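Worked example 2:
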Amino acid sequence: MIGFGAVLLLITYAQGAGFVQLAGGTPAARAVFANSMAVLGTQLFYLFPAPFRLDTLAGFVQWRAYGPIEVMVMIWAIAAGTAAVRVDEDRQLVDYWLAARVSRARLVASRLVAFGLAALVAVAAAALGVLAGAAGHATIDPGGLAGKSLALLMLIVVLFALCLLASQFAATQRGAQTGAAALLVALYLCDVVARSNHSLDGLAWISPFRWYDATTSLAPGGHFDVAAILLTAGLIVAAGVLTALAFSRRDVRGALLARPAREAGARDAAPSPLLSWPVGRLLYRQRGVVIGWALASAGFAVFMVGTAHSIVDTLKGVPSLRAFLELGGADPYIAYIGGFWFGIAELLLAGFAVHLVSGWAADDTEGILTAVLSTPRHRWSVVAERAAAAVVGMAIVVAAGSLVTALVAAAIGNGLETGALLRASWPLIPFGLTFAAVGAAASAVWPRAAIGVLGVLAFASYMLDEFAPILNWPRWVADLSVMQLYGNPYLSGVYWTGLWAMLAVAVAGFGLAAALMQRREVGV
């Protein structure tokens, strides 16, 4: 609640305060800016909803801040919803509550209400950020802001309710997270595809993300969609009822549709020798995560590089962005590929680190770590194995993205310099390790909070890197961002000071994780 509330406040404040810097102070300049951003929005439909009144501060904040927020709260809902079911059951908290004669329906209802109150605090923080960012620049309609805030609150709660329901069908936290993420991503894609293909608008209306986008009341002349709010409320109630019914028909720590146990088959051949290596063994267990993020990296590379020409032609119309594309006299298309793609790669690696840390935390809560330590093994060796596996996994994800970037860039006639590509790629590994190390330390002392801590760090780093220069914040504030430490090695060379700082954080983080692992009871 505190972490995501702080992130939402920072995002809305920064977008509002940065509007004047980006759009200018005259109606003519803002009209040109709005047209440019609207064209850009058609290219970035996977992240932003349809733009509306971008010539106003409120309209820009609604598009640029409240649009991507729906992706951020999706992560929050997955982490909180699955933990509220699987972690509480694994820690036997649910056993105590049921023994105290608390009904299962009441447990489900209390979780929905409690999370709704936490979401209300975060939504209120986002609204305060809008008012603070607009102070002295524009007047915000309180009714319009309240309408958009209500839509956001309903979205967060309905996503949490859907995650509670999805968690009933898995017996582990890892399985619950996978199922909940698949459900929410599918619903998000139903909305996204309709943004670029209006013939699919009917399909999009099954998605709560479309119901959220339907309310545009923050912008002047916007619309508060009552039907969308009622649909969201109805889905919250339906998901809560179905969750209560599913919970009443399954065993604690069991899945609703549990498969009957099967006799394990004997192996005719010995396992691969690679499984005898500690790092190889851990990578094999996490092979799905590594392969999935490598494919995601390659897919984003294809999309970003493939649309380079259309996006760059749009960005040339924005003076503040045209200066960046012409940095150092570089070809603007190559500057975009080298600059913007590696910015996306940073976010992908941060997400990959969150997924790795999620697995480490799940090992602790599901008893896997206890079994590993009983072999017996030193606790510090477990942390060392995780660090080595993270290095190899980061290298695979980076190599997949960079290789595909080079191939697609060459295919569209904008070949990248091999030396510059390698120079920008290898520092991504210590960049990703920075997040993994912080997550390792957090999971060593409090596994359940590790994902939240890492998610807040990733979002805060992104926002500090993006808005510190625009808002003229002190340099020391910008240096708190891991993105700032990575720099822009493709266009301006390796930022060695930042690289050494990232390596220091990685070593200190994993070292602290090893020390903390020695001092606490596993599974607590």
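The chain has two domains: 1-257, 275-524. Residues 1-257 form one domain.
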